[in-house]
Automatic annotation (TrEMBL):
An annotated GO BP: iron import into cell
Secretion signal span: 1-21
Protein name stated in the entry: Deferrochelatase
Protein purpose: Involved in the recovery of exogenous heme iron. Extracts iron from heme while preserving the protoporphyrin ring intact.
InterPro entries to which the protein is assigned, alphabetical: Dimeric_a/b-barrel (IPR011008), Dyp_perox_C (IPR048328), Dyp_perox_N (IPR048327), Dyp_peroxidase (IPR006314), EfeB/EfeN (IPR006313), TAT_signal (IPR006311)
Keyword Metal-binding among record annotations: yes
Domain Dyp-type peroxidase C-terminal, chain residue ranges per copy: 208-393
Predominant location category: other
The species this protein was found in: Streptomyces malaysiense
Length: 405
């Protein structure tokens, strides 16, 4: 069930000169090869059945920017279509290592660095553009949960962009180009930036750690699993006026602050009981010594003392598909750190992004977690949004064309 691997390596054709260096460095202490020289050259295809940034590259990139936009007043379907056309052209160029129209040279010298740009539509987009009748039925608002502390100004939005890249300049460049391309049509409503581990930071590719120090991503659905596509992507066969969502997905975005002070007050054993996995290896607490993060968890195993090995309120037990009528999702987020709050605690946590064929999967699991998950005491959900993310554009097409043309 593990989602593990390195960024896909597409052809290096069309890269900016000097981006591809040969040879591989060697890890200073382990002697393992660290192929960091391929980081710049790696290009993720823009066109395809699904938009990039959901399952390509397989692992979320080292940096991520999320930006929601609201349409300017007086903007309708025609202007929105022109914007999506401009955005797609710029994203296609940049992700393939070419300069977009009117480039500002910020990312000059760099290859595409696994840049992906993913576009989504919020619920309000449809009424503002006269397309309410084509809004997907699944695009329901995420309800407020009892322990939520949601800031509406940093939630929702008409349009959404997710930028991911393995280089900070490449990521900023893409966001900046796209924001400028929106001028006059849409304004930034909120923007958040996050990060994961840089490629080459570990001797071999590993599941990332979050800011609580846990290995995070182990239980994600396996791309080779038979239910994977059905879990993540919308299927053909719905009503004709929603066919534009074929091959698409729904992104639920939650900014979740971690209460790192109270978390640090727990012993390591207590921290492991909150999640249900060991911190060092990520192995489930139901597994014997020497197990790894891929060892399947056994929810019905008891300790010699007679208590559940994975406690009743452990995060992985409460969140697992087995506890939620099979509801499953792909978690692919970014950590964030935005300085310090007035009380001296870090404003840091997880830009939690899940991908699912129906946002109902997230709502079902979060409803359960909010009441029963031990982790709830150490986190605060501070913003919330859900976006319909259409399928990928075919060559010559722009993202969302089947909705907007
Ligand atoms: C598993 C951390 C929020 C759903 C995990 C794991 C960790 C973790 C460490 C175990 C390793 C893994 O499978 O990835 C966190 C943290 C959160 C958070 C730090 C907040 C800051 C959420 C939320 C949801 C969620 C809001 C869904 C509504 C899941 C699921 C699993 C999981 C489905 C896999 C369970 C399984 O093994 O089947 N999480 N999580 N998590 N989490 Fe979270």
């Amino acid at each position: 069930r593990r989602l593990l691997g390195t960024a896909g390596t597409a052809g290096a054709a069309g890269l900016m000169a000097g981006a591809v260096a040969g040879g591989a460095a060697t890890h200073a202490t382990t002697g393992h090869p660290t192929p960091v020289t391929s980081v710049g050259a790696t290009a993720v295809p823009f066109h395809g059945a699904h938009q990039a940034g959901i399952i390509t590259p397989l692992r979320a990139q080292a940096i991520g920017h999320l930006a929601a936009f609201d349409l300017a007043s007086g903007t309708g379907r025609k202007e929105a279509a022109a914007l999506l056309r401009r955005w797609s052209a710029a994203a296609e160029a940049m992700t393939q290592g070419r300069a977009p129209a009117g480039d500002d040279q910020i990312a000059l010298d760099a290859g595409p660095c696994s840049l992906t740009v993913t576009f989504g539509f919020g619920r309000t987009f449809f009424s503002r553009t006269g397309l309410a009748h084509r809004a997907p039925a699944a695009l329901v608002p995420v309800p407020r949960f009892p322990s939520d502390a949601i800031d509406p100004k940093r939630s929702d939005g008409d349009l959404w962009i997710q930028v991911g890249a393995d280089d900070p300049l490449v990521g900023f460049h893409a966001l900046h180009v796209l924001q400028k391309a929106a001028a006059g049509t849409a304004e930034v409503r909120w923007q958040m930036s996050g990060f994961n581990r840089a490629p080459g930071a570990t001797a071999r590719p590993k599941t990332v750690r979050n800011l609580m120090g846990q290995i995070d991503g182990t239980g994600n659905p396996e791309p080779t699993g038979k239910d994977f596509a059905r879990t993540i992507f919308t299927r053909r066969g719905g009503p004709a006026d929603q066919a534009w969502m074929n091959g698409g997905s729904y992104a639920v975005v939650r900014r979740i602050r971690m209460l790192l002070g109270p978390w640090a007050d727990l012993t390591r054993t207590q921290q492991e009981e909150v999640i249900g996995r060991r911190k060092d290896t990520g192995a489930p607490l139901s597994a014997p010594a020497g197990a790894s993060e891929t060892t399947p968890m056994e929810l019905n195993r008891f300790t010699r003392g007679g208590s559940l090995a994975i406690p009743a309120d452990a995060h992985i037990r409460v969140a697992a598909p087995e506890s939620n009528d099979g509801a499953a999702m792909l978690r692919r987020g970014f950590s964030y750190h935005d300085g310090y709050r007035a009380d001296g605690t870090p404003d840091a946590g997880l830009l939690f992004i899940t991908w699912q064929a129906d946002p109902e999967a997230f709502i079902k699991v979060q409803t359960k977690l909010d009441g029963a998950d031990h982790l709830t005491r150490f986190i605060r959900h501070e913003s919330s949004a859900v976006f319909a993310v259409p399928g990928g554009a075919a060559p010559g097409e722009y993202v969302g064309q089947r909705l907007l043309e």
